[in-house]
Amino acid sequence: MFKTLKRVFSYARPYIAYFVLTVLFAALGVSLSLAVPVFIGNAVDCCIGRENVDFGRLKVIVTELAVIVIASGLFQWLMSLCTNKLAFLTVRDLRADVFGKLERVPLKYIDGHTKGELTSRVINDIEIISDGLLQGFTQFFSGIITVIGTLIFMMTINVKIAIVVVILTPLSFIAASKITKATHDSYMQQSKLRGDMVGLAEEMAGNQKIVKSFVYGERAEERFEQINTAYGKIGTKATFFSSMTNPTTRFVNGLIYAAVGLLGALGAMGHSAFVGVMSVGKLSSFLAYSNQYTKPFNEISGVFAELQNAVASAQRVFEVLDEEEVSDDSDLTKLTDCTGDLRFSDVFFSYDPKTQLIQNFSLDVRSGQRVAIVGPTGCGKSTIINLLLRFYDIDSGKIEVSGHDINTVTRDSLRSSFGMVLQETWVFTGTVAENIAYGVPDATREQVVEAAKSVYAHGFIKRLPNGYDTVISENSGLSQGQKQLICIARIMLMDPPMLILDEATSSIDLRTEQRIQKAFVKLMEGRTSFVIAHRLSTIKKADTILVMKRGNIIEQGDHNQLMANGGFYSELYNSQFAS
Questions:
Q1: What confidence score (pLDDT) does residue 263 get?
Q2: If you compute the radius of gyration of the chain from its CA atoms, what whole number of angstroms results?
Q3: Which of 34, 75, 276, 422 has the fewest CB atoms within 10 Å, measured from its CB?
Q4: Phi and psi at residue 53, to the nearest 5°
């Protein structure tokens, strides 16, 4: 726990000025508030009996008391302001680091976690850390100064009773620490279940059409209910333990207050040689200080639940920050003047060492050639693309682009040599022009329009309310085909030396597809192309066809060779055209 808190506080180091101001304003505000019982005690001593009230002195004391209360409130407000700034700036940097980390972790880490869970860590968990810090900072600084200040004032009034208070105080710490240990594990489980619940909700809400089409609603509700029930049970357990802290410490502090009152009353009546003689005003001041002395322990124990929750969330956030990053390749050579020549030499790869996929794969691709990748669903066609773009690294062997081992060039320069259109479309919230210029942000409007025209997207774009300046998003009402046209226009604008097309026209009507296929033929002239195909009729003219099954390449050659061999490709092709 302390190691985690220390790491969280390290993010506050750049804002040490707010920390210093927080301590200063806390000291001033609490110090002034601690003077209040002295004035109250003096005011009580001004009223020692019937018709024996010093109104002149009482008026002065009340005036001074009002000034002190107002000044104390002002300094405590300034303390809260600095605390808020410190906490919000700290979590801002933490959130930025986590988001940046997600940009640098290997793709296998992203693949291994749901989007909802990662979103929960970036947003929900860091928000919980912020809440814990706000309460923790405020209660910690004001509490420490209050305890020290009240102890000093109590010592000036009656040393012996003050010592009794100090001796009994550790009982509050013991009670709180025992309960805190039982709370931490519960909050860790609660944080994990929260991430699972957010992940499921995001998955179901984002795919409502599919959920409803397959009548999965009831089963989704059952899954959510299971997680929600478990979350409720562990949340109840965590809340039960954490909620015991405050009443337990209040009970102990009540015993301390009662002991002070009893000893002080005996002193005021002159019946205690141990305490000595005390005036009624001093007794009232001491009781007020005793209450103030124990109050910080109650407040701090009251935020133990928030702190425990914040620590549990911080540990989940730091798990992301501690993940292994992809290696820094800034010192490697940048791939320039890419010709499009590719070579696979004795490549072995598997996602899991226990399940071997690609084995001893070799292939020579010359510039301008077209390579098709075919096979049944789930056979690993996208694996080749993952290896080409170094989303995953091969286990052994070598992949070369234009004579360069891809492990010796920077990832950015390698990936910028490929233009990729996926089966799944993606547009971000922005104008149509910005979406098309995603890969070439400095492109002129004329270049954007020309790219759109080449894929026959110009017509529907001009019919939008603001043409190329229309703001679109995933839910802006564009059809799947229109979004795909925008994605293809991006590649036209990039004009890369190599292409990757993952059934890029699957969401477009037949007439538009025919036009785009013509545009692709023009685009692929002189460029190396990898085409992942589901309809085998579209890749008959490919120079090389890679046939995959169960993650491995089992056949390769052109269409005529593979058909003549009568192997798995021949079976696939004939099955699509069987009468």
A1: 74
A2: 36
A3: 276
A4: -120, 130
Secondary structure class of 529 (helix, strand, coil): strand
In three-state secondary structure terms, 555 is strand
Ranges of residues in the chain whose predicted pLDDT is under 50: 579
> Which tens digit of pLDDT belongs to each residue from 125-162?
888 888 777 667 667 777 777 778 878 877 777 777 77
Identity of the residue numbered 287: L
**Other CB atoms within 10 A of residue 566 CB:** 10
Phi, psi of 355 (to 5 degrees): -120, 105
Q: Is 495 helix (H, G, I), strand (E, B) or coil?
A: coil
Q: Which residue has the tokens 């089992």?
A: 554
Torsion of CA 545, 550, 554, 556, to 10 degrees: 10
* Strands 47-49 and 52-53, bridge-based pairing: antiparallel
Both structure tokens of 487: 């994605």
Q: What is the mean pLDDT of the chain?
A: 80
Nearest to 125 by CA among 320, 312, 321: 312
Q: How far apart are CA 248 and CA 256, in angstroms?
A: 13
The beta strands (E) that lie in 448-497 are given as 471-472
Cα–Cα nearest to 154, from 289, 270, 263: 289
As a whole number of angstroms, the distance between CA 541 and CA 561 comes to 12
- Dig out the tokens for 496 from the structure: 């890369």
What tokens does 296 get?
Answer: 């910080």
The C-alpha atoms of residue 385 and residue 392 are separated, in whole angstroms, by 9
What's the confidence (pLDDT) of residue 301?
A: 61
User: Contact, 347 vs 396, CB < 8 A?
Assistant: yes
Closest CA to 492 of 510, 527, 519, 517: 519
Q: Please state, in angstroms and rounded to a whole number, the distance separating the CA atoms of residues 311 and 114.
A: 22
Render 217-235 in DSSP notation, one character per residue.
Answer: HHHHHHHHHHHHHHHHHHH
Residues 385 and 43: their CA atoms lie apart, in Å, by 84
